[in-house]
Specification:
3 domains, 604 residues, 18 helices, BirA Bifunctional Protein, domain 2, alpha+beta, YbaK protein, 9-stranded mixed sheet, Rossmann fold
């Protein structure tokens, strides 16, 4: 008996089917209409195609078809991580807050942390990520350079207290992520580890049939020296990608820079030597108000004044009137991720005026951070810190004490590329992966130290690499769909082939042929489902297209009368194929269209 069990397990490990898969024997609850709370196409199709069901906001149950896709994505991720030399572990989701306090993220990431208490009223954190846990592990297990490099990864459920869960799996409270963490003895080794993960990510997304573009990214609350995001272009994405096709420059909006120079702001040089002059601006509350008659001050000639509270202390940020603050860049310049716009009462106490009449001329008790585009600007207009009044002829260098000039704004479409000088483009996108070079931020704070070749204690140089597995699944749907439903890549489709029996019943010749083809394909290792439901052909065809099976084989009397069975790729033309040739044709087609076959493994 023990030997039999071992043989069966080996078959399962090889992916051999152990029995026929019939539509009527599983659960694929398709819907004609989209749920009212589904805002984007991928969310709608997740529900309509019967992949998931919502339990409550941000929490979803994976149904059989969704779970099959999820497992196939995980399999690709696992294969590529192993190929890149990473070591799989599995860490606790429940984490002690002390390690988050040591890293400094207990407060910095408090807005996303789920904090729970056990029966003894001890506090715990539900992990949104595992830098603290894995660094604590390495601190206890690795003490010599001879044990490095190491890269540990896991595929696990994460928890984030999203203030507004939306878009299905895109922004959920509970999700599945692959996270990996590299530990190296020197900077060269850390760069090599980073490159290995970067290349692995390129292969992972390619094998999933997903167009995901690597772009420069901000390190944010993670910290570190540099990072890249893998972005999926999508009109409904919540992120923005800035790029130049000619030069290859690409960055997310939080990191993007342009070639726009301070001298291209268009200041009025003829007024640069004139003294500041106060003038009345009744009922002016916004930049837009000041652009209208009788004032007619272009937004590019105005200074926008923002008052921020940084760790309960005020700071002023100055932007050109037609530019928007980039909060990620501001956080880097302010030296904190914990900042907010000041309340009206706080602003009045600080500057003596209400929003709409604010400026930094003559301010000396508060740090003033100005966007780099304003450096050297003259002839500008700003608030006079007196309600209903503004100042003209403002010369930045002369009239405002600037603590620091820095890049604080969002790049805008059409600005020159920093590499080619050609107009930049911006498009919406979905982040599916992120790689960071963390440096020693966590290893120093959590004690992940080792003895180098000279016997000197050094902190490990770390990298962090995440892939949103559930988000990747939905991003594929967002990228691969049409008016009829999902169009899965072969590599991660819930089933590669759907055989649609147009007549059913054990004694029916049509159904017998359908079962025969099903069995033959299963024997060849094809992931195939047989639609054995006693429903109208049109209804079954619509379900097949909605769920998105890459290939449909329809067996019916009309087709057989024409000499064969219907061979219909999801995005291709229908053919009539001899039943004796259908298996070979199917195998050939699947191999040609599967982005996850071995041929792609050899392309680095």
């Amino acid at each position: 008996m023990a030997l039999v069990v071992i043989v069966l397990d080996l078959k399962l490990l090889k992916g051999v089917n152990v029995g026929p898969m019939y539509w009527s024997k599983t659960l694929i609850p398709t819907l004609k209409e989209s749920p009212a709370d589904a805002e984007i196409i991928s969310h709608k199709l997740l529900i309509r195609a019967g992949l998931v069901r919502k339990l409550t906001g941000g929490l979803y149950t994976f149904l059989p078809m969704g779970l099959k896709v999820l497992r196939k994505v995980e399999k690709i991720v696992r294969e590529e991580m192993n190929r890149a030399g990473a070591i799989e572990v599995f860490m606790p989701a429940l984490q002690p807050p002390e390690i988050w306090q040591k890293s400094g993220r207990y407060e910095a990431a408090s807005d996303v942390l789920f904090k729970v208490h056990d029966r003894a009223r001890k506090e715990w954190v539900l992990g949104p990520t595992h830098e603290e846990v894995v660094t604590t592990l390495v601190a206890g297990e690795i003490n010599s350079y001879k044990q490095l490099p190491k890269n540990f990864y896991q595929i696990q459920t994460k928890f984030r207290d999203e203030i507004r869960p939306r878009f299905g799996l895109m922004r959920a409270k509970e999700f599945i992520m692959k996270d990996a963490y590299s530990f190296d003895a020197d900077d060269e080794g850390a760069n090599n580890s980073y490159r290995a993960m970067y290349d692995a990510y390129v292969r992972i997304f390619r094998r999933c049939g997903l167009v995901a573009l690597p772009v420069e990214a901000d390190t944010g609350v993670m910290g570190g020296s540099f990072s890249h995001e893998f972005m999926v272009p999508a009109e409904t994405g919540e992120d923005f990608m800035v790029y130049c096709e000619e030069s290859g420059y690409a960055a997310n909006l939080e990191k993007a820079v342009s070639g726009l120079k301070p001298d291209s702001t268009g200041p009025d040089e003829d007024r640069s030597a004139l003294p500041t002059e106060e003038f009345p601006t009744p009922d002016v509350r916004t930049i837009e108000d000041l652009t209208k008659a009788p004032f007619d001050v272009p937004a590019s000639h105005q200074i926008k004044t923002l008052v921020m509270m940084v760790d309960s202390k005020p700071a002023i940020i100055l932007l050109r009137g037609d530019h928007q603050l980039n909060e990620a860049k501001a956080g880097s310049v302010l030296g904190s991720t914990v900042f907010r716009p000041a309340e009206p009462a706080e602003i009045i106490d600080l500057l003596g005026a209400k929003p709409g009449s604010l400026g930094a001329v003559g301010v000396s008790t508060v740090p003033v951070y100005a966007d780099a585009i304003l450096e050297g600007a003259t002839g500008m207009v700003t608030g006079a810190n007196r309600d209903g009044f503004h100042l003209r002829n403002v010369n930045i260098a002369r009239d405002i004490t600037v603590t620091r000039f820095a890049d604080l704004r969002n790049v805008e479409e059409g600005e020159p590329c920093p590499q080619s000088g050609l107009p930049l483009k911006i498009r919406r996108s979905i982040e599916v992966g992120h790689v960071f070079k963390l440096g020693t931020k966590y290893s120093e704070k959590l004690g992940a130290l080792f003895l180098d070749a000279n016997g000197k204690q050094q902190p490990c140089i770390m990298g962090c690499y995440g892939i949103g597995v559930t988000r990747t699944l939905q991003a594929v749907i967002e990228q691969s769909n049409d008016k009829n439903g999902i169009s899965w890549p072969v590599s991660i489709a819930p089933f590669e082939v759907c055989i649609t029996a147009l007549d059913v019943g054990d004694d029916n010749p049509v159904f017998q042929l359908a079962r025969k083809i099903h069995a033959q394909l299963q024997d060849k290792g094809v992931d195939v489902i047989l639609d054995d439901r006693d429903l109208r052909p049109g209804f079954k065809f619509k379900d097949s297209e909605l769920v998105g099976f890459p290939l449909r084989i329809a067996v019916g009397e009309k087709g057989l009368a024409k000499g064969g069975v219907e061979f219909k790729p999801r995005d291709g033309e229908l053919e009539i194929v001899d039943p004796e040739q259908i298996v070979d044709k199917t195998l050939t087609w699947l191999r040609e269209h599967n982005t996850s076959l071995d041929r792609s493994m050899d392309q680095d």
